[in-house]
Amino acid sequence: MKKWIQTTEQNQWAEKGMPPKISESENTVTLTDVFDQKIGGFGGCFNELGYIALQKISQEKQKEIFSALFEKESGCNFNFCRLPIGANDYAAEWYSHNEHDSDYDMSRFSIERDYKYLLPYIKQAHKLNPEMKFSASPWSPPTWMKFPKAHNYGKLRMEPEILRAYALYFMRFIQAYESEGVSIEQITANLSS
Q1: So what CATH class is 41-187?
Q2: Helix %, strand %, coil % for the chain, to 5?
Q3: What pLDDT, in 10s, does the model give residues 145-181?
Q4: Is 42 helix (H, G, I), strand (E, B) or coil?
Q5: What is the pLDDT of residues 15-24, one digit of tens each?
Q6: Where in the chain are the domains?
Q7: Which residues pair with 110 in a beta bridge?
């Protein structure tokens, strides 16, 4: 069953009854009669704090939430979602997938942390919507690639070996997630934070 829930600063999570009915022909947005771009999907961002919050409610409620967000027929059909590459602003703490200074060949790259929070979250949603596509973006490069060395501040050092290592960082991420059954459609690079 679909519900219409609205949140304002004065009134959080207020149920508004059933959403207004929309016919199939009305399920489009037209601003002009010129069509230049097709919308590939809608979604949100997977993050650690979201999954941690879900773990605090019953399995039954978790199923309701996942269904409401990701099921194609009865939910919102979120089908294009963003994944963080390392920590984002909704991570339990700051981290990257390689905080080993001067590891230019990414030999110590690891998504080990993602097995605890992100991958279970992503895989559960992906089961409900197997056609889901993923975009990935870092909040910050690994700190040793930046000046100053900080997760939430600074800029990428533009030295050739750093740029090659950062490209390899992305490649390792794509490969690691692919081996977990999560194909990345696109990457958005972040050069600062």
Answers
A1: alpha beta
A2: 30, 10, 55
A3: 999 999 988 999 999 999 999 999 999 999 999 999 9
A4: coil
A5: 877 766 666 6
A6: 41-187
A7: none
Q: 3-state SS of 71-129?
A: CCCCCCCCCEEEEECCCCCCCCCCCCCCCCCCCCCCCCCCCHHHHCCHHHHHHHHHHHC
Residue 25: its pLDDT value, please? 60
- Beta bridge mates, 6: 14
Give the residue from 92, 93, 83, 91 showing the smallest Cα distance to 123.
83
Q: How many CB atoms lie within 10 A of CB 78?
A: 20
Distance CA 122, CA 137 (A): 15
Structural contact between residues 92 and 52, judged by C-beta atoms closer than 8 angstroms = yes
Nearby residues of 101 by Cβ (< 8 Å), 6 or more positions away:
144
Task: Print burial letters for 95-115: b (CB count within 10 Å at least 16), e (below 16).
Answer: bbbbbeeebeebeebebebbe
pLDDT tens digits, one per residue of 92-148: 999 999 999 999 999 999 999 999 999 999 999 999 999 999 999 999 999 999 999
What is the spatial order of strands in the sheet that 80-84 belongs to? 80-84, 133-137, 184-187
Is 140 within 8 Å of 151 (Cβ atoms)?
Answer: yes
The sign of the torsion formed by the CA atoms of 127, 129, 12, 93 equals positive
